[in-house]
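Hi W., the NAP complex you wanted:
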Amino acid sequence: MKDKVILVTGSTDGIGKQTALELARRGATVLLHGRSVERGQTSLEELRAASGNVNLDLFTADLASQKQVRRLAAEVQAKYGLLHVLIHNAGTFMPQRELTEDGLEMTFAVNHLAPFLLTHLLLDKLRQSAPARIITVSSTLHQRAQMDFNNLQGDKHYSPTYAYNLSKLGNVLFTVELADRLRGSGVTANCLHPGAIDTKLLRAAFRGLAGETVAAGAATSVYLATAPEVAALTGLYFEAKRPVSASPQSRDLDLRRKLWDVSRRLTGLDQTLT
Ligand SMILES: NC(=O)c1ccc[n+]([C@@H]2O[C@H](COP(=O)([O-])OP(=O)(O)OC[C@H]3O[C@@H](n4cnc5c(N)ncnc54)[C@H](OP(=O)(O)O)[C@@H]3O)[C@@H](O)[C@H]2O)c1
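Structure:
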């Protein structure tokens, strides 16, 4: 992986931090990302020491702010000529409904809209770097969600699990649609469930549930980022390094396209892949 440049969002903690560590150990240039400069610096130093890899860099942006997502993309573009792998790992679980500075429900904004926007802003770079891979950390909980366009913002009714599951279904619908729109470009898009992993997100969502280690949680992300045998696979949902069936909703073309159009509007993108 020595010549590969990989951005891992949400790599200051949990599964993302472990994913970054393992990619660093394989010699990749790893761009860490977090929302706190302090936690980012600490992670950067820790991961440099643990991996012996000096080619680690840090970018800071709160993904709840579209302005900051745009700044993050601009900084990555300016500093790196190539980007081979983009891992959308950052995620949040919000016990209470909160709105972002853009007036959007926080879970949907951070977990779905930020990956949608960041992907588009970095797409030219990924295409130039092809073969390239876009990997999104979803969850098996996407299977429990129903895409309800009348309540995307949780304003009709809200529960933390409703918002979280919906955002994770958004990850799957986005991945499958993105893969279709990118066919032939040399850029693949896949998503995954990491397992039930002992992190602060799991502890916030399911008190008392014993999770597996972050090493187990990072395994499928690392596999999708590195394995030669998945280089040509796209539009798939993985669990434990194997492609498995995602929610039947992911095969609903109208649903995917509708979410795409709504996401484009909510992120203020003039143009997306058609
Ligand atoms: N743990 C599980 O059992 C499980 C199961 C299925 C799916 N997942 C998914 O796995 C991914 C990683 O989660 P995790 O369990 O490792 O959780 P985690 O330990 O809480 O880590 C989440 C990471 O995302 C960052 N993040 C959260 N909100 C952000 C924001 N607004 N802007 C920028 N960064 C933000 C966090 O930064 P801070 O350090 O600043 O908080 C942290 O680096 C998520 O997408 C989650 O939905 C987890």
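The first strand starts at residue 5 and ends at 8.

W.
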